[in-house]
Amino acid sequence: MSYEAQNSSAQSHNDNENAPGPITASDHEMLTHIRTHGPRLLQTLQESGASKELPFKLVWTAHPHWPLLPNRNTDRVRISVLDSSFNPPTLAHLALANSQKPGQEGEDGYEAKLLLLSVKNADKTLKPGDASYLQRLQMMGLLSQDVVTRWKVEDGRPNVAIGIIDEPTFVGKSRILKEYFAARLRSSPLQSSGPSTQLTFIVGMDTLERLFSPKYYPPPADNPDKTAEQTMLDVLSRMLSPPPDGDDSFIVCANRANLPSDTTQQAKGESGVDQTLSVAQRMGWMKEDPSDSRITLIDIGKRESRFSSTSVRNSRRRIGSWPGARMNAYAPQISKAESSYIQAGLTSIPGQRIDGRALDEYRIVALETGVAPLANGSARVSIGGRTSVEGNGGGGTEVVAATKLEVESVDEGEGVDGGRVNLTIVPGRKAWCMHLDLVVLADQGNVLDVLFLAARAAVWDTRVPRTKVVEWKARPMGGAVVGGGAAKDVGGKEKGKDADRMDVDDTEQPTSGFDTRQLNKAVDFELPDYWDEGEPLEGSEKWPVCVTLNLVPPIHFLDASSREESAVPLKFLLIYSFEKDGKGDKTERPVLRGMRFIGPGEVKAEEVKGMVESGKKYAQETFKALNQKLASEDSRRGRAGRKMST
């Protein structure tokens, strides 16, 4: 591989140059490499505590001979080291990575840059909700595409590497990296004699304050009379001194906006800014001439200096719970870099998802019926995370559905109750009206599919009360009215004034003298047994299911999480019901009831047919699994078996 030197601007603070770039083919290759080798390297590093192996690993390098450059002999390689938790990377990290040591701008800048992730931090430990180390490594890979270096490889990538280290202190990191690079450069085929390395650690002011806090430097066991401050000064002197006595390392520190006061810091047992700088000046590590200083201060820009990973995480949580963001499924909830990262994983071979699922794999689905005692049918469905169905509270998408039957008067002659099957009570007069309510308790993605599942489960669980019709009888001519009210002669003066005749129409005349029929009319109903559970709602088995195909060309995937949804340009909703043909065939056949595209993305017309077929297969699997679970719920609750339509 050939490499070429290119002059480039060492630092820029304008928004265009700090904006993340698009994902390229080489970036896909890099992310695949990190996903493949990162887990093994992390495990090896964390298990190396008892071995003599150095606790440092290179996860990815821009080229095999990094940090050396082909066709360029040098007796010293200057490497900038940006050590951080990267949880997540921000524009402040990018500004730090692209910063230069005063007096070393342009052609006199760093030969190579290292993004370093510490898996052991003196102050920080992994907390619930934090990005995993593998996720951070991949975000560091995306960050590396925007790092600027003087020398670039043939395909335009900078001379950058990504590494992991299991050492909490900077003085320890300096020693480990010096030893590692000395061995790596001695074995490099590019130069017969290995050059020396000079490390410059790029830090923020808060990190510099911790570096000068004596509490992180316990006295050695063999010299208990030595104070922590003396120990700190000794180890820092070794780190910041030139060879052969020291590591020959430097520190470049970025000024930070909104720093706490020295009084606040000292109350926490930490050095304040003024105290830190005073110690550095007293030891001769900071001088008026930056080119002659081991510790120098730089400005990375007022805007960039205000960014922090903590504020980004807090903002992300607030945006995730913002109601307006869920009303618009395509509100910009994640950055372009995070969206590109998600899409790169989905379109890689094989597809990679944040939670490790396959592209056609659903999260765990939990279902429970009979959750609302006052409803005629109810169900709760959750998908993903630890939900309240499992007794542990939020974390996934959760929907509760309930049906309620109420008596409704029906206008006679309009036929509005003709399709209500077993919802009719008094033909032409009264019927059950079913109300279906759905409540979204939590939305962590794929809420439309869950809404359909919950609705089908609640309708399945619905029981229609059994009723008994109350009939009223009346003679067409003469005699008395039977069935209610006082007996009255049809021809008497009281005719037409009997309020108790209710719905009996006694004005209808017989068609002939031989017509001796009585008029029988159903006018009301009663519940023969209040405690009777009722009968299943006829037709409930025809309630459809919904399958959402999330499209990231050229692939589609199922059950998107909320973060994945934010990176998806187009959704394809397919709604299927499954019905028997009524000719003795017991197989439910899929019927496409509706489909819809949602989102600004585009799809080719010739691809739609294939996606419809895929959606039909997924819908059949969902329908079958849902019916099995609903039957299991009926059995659990001791409900009568369901008579399915034929």
From TrEMBL:
Biased composition (Basic and acidic residues): 490-504
Gene Ontology cellular component terms for the protein in this record: cytoplasm; nuclear exosome (RNase complex)
Ranges annotated as biased composition (Polar residues): 1-13
GO molecular function: ATP hydrolysis activity; nicotinamide-nucleotide adenylyltransferase activity
Region spans: Disordered: 1-25, 483-513
Coiled coil: none
Signal sequence, renumbered to the chain: none
Protein name in the entry: Cytidylyltransferase
